[in-house]
Write a structure and sequence with these properties.
By secondary structure, the protein is an alpha/beta fold. Helix content is 36%, strand content 25%. The chain has a single domain, classed as Formyl transferase, N-terminal domain (Rossmann fold), CATH 3.40.50.170. Helix 1 crosses helix 6. It binds 5-O-phosphono-beta-D-ribofuranosylamine.
Length: 200
């Protein structure tokens, strides 16, 4: 089972997936990292893990469709069956999402539909909720709006700062994402409209 990870930044989720692959828990192989920021730390993590990298500068292309066509070619060459977004800070075009419908997943640091978009952790603190969490969902044409696959709650404690809360959320993310990807690799996830079921 081959997958591609798309990321733009630090890469803690990418690294957790690599670790899960190496321990055998992922049940599949990360065939390529796709990164829209050639200088991002995640690119170095991929090189260290011997994962192929397709890094590009969006500015150097006339349109999103132009670089996405190159990405799609890379994925097809490798027989990629699942696209795992892990901090990829760009919306995919409607045609790309349509083409890979049901085969793109994302992780978001809140209990969606609360706090979509950027800085979900800051949004939750500013709102004053007592509970937030992590969502893994299918990607549709919107921003963090696709069908939910799995969620885990994380309590907000008195005195939490963006940093202390982020640390607990990231720990939960890293565990949950590998687990969900392994369900995919085992063919256990099915999508019917907005309804996602996970076979035992
Ligand atoms: C994670 O919090 C993820 O939920 C969000 O972007 C962040 C990426 O962090 N979509 P990292 O690059 O995996 O460390």
């Amino acid at each position: 089972f081959r997958m591609a990870v798309f990321a733009s930044g630090r890469g803690s989720n990418f690294q957790a997936l690599v670790d899960a692959q190496q321990s055998g828990a992922l049940g599949g192989e990360i065939s390529i990292l796709v990164c829209d920021k050639p200088q991002a730390p995640v690119v170095e993590l991929a090189k260290a893990a011997n994962v192929d990298v397709f890094a590009f500068q969006p500015k150097e292309y006339a349109s999103k469709e132009d670089y996405e066509r190159e990405i799609a070619a890379e994925l097809q060459q490798r027989g990629v069956e699942l696209i795992v977004l892990a901090g990829y800070m760009r919306l995919l075009s409607p045609s790309f999402v349509e083409f890979y419908n049901g085969r793109i997943i994302n992780i978001h640091p809140s209990l969606l539909p609360a706090f979509p978009g950027k800085d979900a952790i800051g949004q939750a603190l500013a709102y004053g909720v007592k509970m937030t969490g992590v969502t893994v969902h299918f990607v549709d044409g919107g921003m963090d709006t696709g069908p939910v696959i799995a969620q885990k709650a994380v309590e907000i404690k008195d005195g939490d700062t963006a940093e202390t809360l982020a640390e607990r959320i990231h720990a939960v993310e890293q565990k949950l994402y590998s687990e969900v990807v392994s369900w995919f690799a085992q063919g256990r996830i099915s999508l019917n409209g907005r309804n996602v079921t996970i076979a035992l």
